[in-house]
Design a protein that fits this description.
Layout: H1 2-17, H2 21-32, H3 37-44, H4 50-89, H5 102-105, H6 110-124, E1 128-129, E2 135-137, H7 138-141, H8 152-156, E3 171-173, H9 179-187, E4 192-201, E5 212-222, H10 227-242, E6 249-256, E7 259-268, E8 278-287, H11 289-294, E9 303-310, H12 311-319, H13 332-338
Parallel strand pairs: 1-4
Antiparallel strand pairs: 2-3, 4-5, 5-9, 6-7, 7-8, 8-9
Helix pairs in contact: 1-2, 1-4, 2-4, 6-12
Bound molecules: phenylalanine.
Residues 176, 178, 256, 259, 283-285, 306-308 line the site of phenylalanine.
C-alpha cells in the first residue's frame, strides 16, 4: 500500500510537471500505457494470494482512476495554452494597410486594364463575354462572314496561314474577333448580347501596327434591334470609358462584307482633352443577312448590329500612350510607368481608372 501511495505521489508530480503535450503523453505512456507502471501492477495481480487480490486490485484501479483524471485535467490546461500560443502567432490585424511588397510592385498591363474596364461597362449594359480561339478556320474567319475567297478584303487582311492540310483546307491566325460572332450565332439562340475581347493577328508592322493586337467585338441579335440602339450603345460606352459626360461621335459610311450598312466611328478628341481632332476607334454596322443565313438564322425574323473596336488604340487614346510597339516590348520601365496597381480593380461605382 505504501508503494501505491508513493507511486501516486510520483505520477501526480510528473503530470503536474509536464510542460507541454509531448511530455504529458510520455508520462501517460509511462503510467497507464501497455507497459506502464500501473499496467504492470495489474499484471502482477495473478501472482498474489487469493485473499489479497481483491483489495489490491481495487487500490490499483483507484490509483489508475486518479492518474487518468489528473492526465485529462493537465491535458485540458496544456491544450488551451497551445491554442493560445498559436492564436498569438497567427494574429492578423485586418485593419492594417497592405504592406508594400510584391503585390504592390507588380503592375497590370494597360491593355489588361482596358480589357477589364470594357467588360465592366458592357456587363452593366447586359452583355456577356464570349471567347473564341486564336487559331481559326477559313470558314469562320472569312466565308461565314460573307467574305468569299475572291473578295479583296481577304487579301487586305494580310493573313498568317498555317501549312495546308491534306484536304487542302488551312488554318489561320484570326485576323479579327468577328469569327466569334459566327461561333456565338451558331451555338446560341437569340436574343444575343455579347462582347468578345481577344488577340488578333495580321502580317503588318510599323509604328502604329503590330503583327498581334487586340480587338473587342460586340454583337446584338434579336427581332427588333436597329441602328438607333447601335448608336446609343456606342455612345454610352464612350462616355463611360473616357469617364466624361459628353462624347461627340461621328458615324462615317464605310464597307465591311459582314455588315450592311457599315460605318466607321470617330470620336471627338475633346473627350481626351484634345479638341478639334477626330479619331477613329471602331468599325460597325447592321449584321448582313447573308451572315445571319450562314448561321441558320432567318433574316426576315432576326436582325442586329455588330462592332469591332481596337483595344490597343482606345488604350493609347485614354491613357496618352504614344507608341503601340512599346505595348509588346516587355520593358519593365514602361510597365512601371503606364501599368496599374493590382489593387485598383476597375468598377463603375468606384471609378474605372482608379
Ligand atoms: N472586323 C472588322 C475589322 O477587323 C471590324 C468590324 C466588326 C466591323 C464588326 C463591323 C462589324 O476591321
Amino acid at each position: 500500500m505504501t508503494d501505491l501511495s508513493k507511486l501516486e505521489g510520483e505520477l501526480l508530480a510528473e503530470i503536474a510537471g509536464a510542460a507541454d503535450l509531448g511530455q504529458l503523453d510520455a508520462v501517460r505512456v509511462g503510467a497507464i500505457g501497455k507497459k506502464g507502471r500501473i499496467s504492470e501492477l495489474m499484471s502482477k495481480l495473478g501472482s498474489l494470494p487469493a485473499e489479497e487480490r481483491k483489495a489490491f486490485g481495487q487500490s490499483v484501479n483507484t490509483l489508475k482512476g486518479k492518474v487518468s483524471d489528473a492526465l485529462d485535467a493537465r491535458k485540458a490546461v496544456l491544450d488551451r495554452a497551445a491554442l493560445e500560443a498559436r492564436l498569438a502567432t497567427e494574429r492578423a490585424d485586418v485593419t492594417l494597410p497592405v504592406r508594400a511588397g510584391s503585390l504592390l510592385s507588380g503592375r497590370i498591363h494597360p491593355v489588361s486594364q482596358v480589357f477589364d474596364e470594357c467588360v465592366e461597362i458592357f456587363a452593366d449594359l447586359g452583355f456577356e463575354v464570349a471567347e473564341g480561339p486564336d487559331i481559326e478556320t477559313d470558314d469562320l474567319n472569312f466565308d461565314a462572314l460573307n467574305i468569299p475567297a475572291e473578295h479583296p478584303a481577304r487579301q487586305e487582311h494580310d493573313t498568317f496561314y498555317f501549312a495546308p492540310k491534306a484536304d487542302g483546307s488551312r488554318l489561320l491566325l484570326r485576323t479579327h474577333t468577328s469569327p466569334v460572332q459566327i461561333r456565338t450565332m451558331r451555338s446560341q439562340k437569340p436574343p444575343i448580347r455579347i462582347i468578345a475581347p481577344g488577340r488578333v493577328y495580321r502580317s503588318d508592322s510599323d509604328q502604329t501596327h503590330t503583327p498581334m493586337f487586340h480587338q473587342i467585338e460586340g454583337l446584338v441579335i434579336d427581332e427588333t434591334t436597329h441602328m438607333g440602339h447601335l448608336k446609343w450603345v456606342l455612345e454610352e460606352f464612350a462616355k463611360a470609358f473616357f469617364e466624361v459626360d459628353e462624347v461627340r461621335m461621328r458615324f462615317r459610311a464605310s464597307h465591311f462584307p459582314f455588315t450592311e450598312p457599315s460605318m466607321e466611328v470617330d470620336i471627338d478628341a475633346a473627350a481626351i482633352g484634345k479638341p478639334g481632332q477626330w479619331l477613329e476607334i471602331l468599325g460597325c454596322g447592321m449584321v448582313h443577312p447573308n451572315v445571319l443565313r450562314n448561321c441558320g438564322l432567318d433574316p426576315e425574323k432576326y436582325q442586329g448590329f455588330a462592332f469591332g473596336m481596337g483595344l490597343d488604340r482606345i488604350t493609347m487614346l485614354k491613357y496618352g500612350i504614344p507608341d503601340l510597339r512599346a505595348f509588346f516590348s516587355a520593358d519593365l520601365r514602361w510597365l512601371r510607368h503606364y501599368g496599374f496597381s493590382v489593387l485598383d480593380v476597375p468598377t463603375l461605382g468606384g471609378g474605372l481608372s482608379g
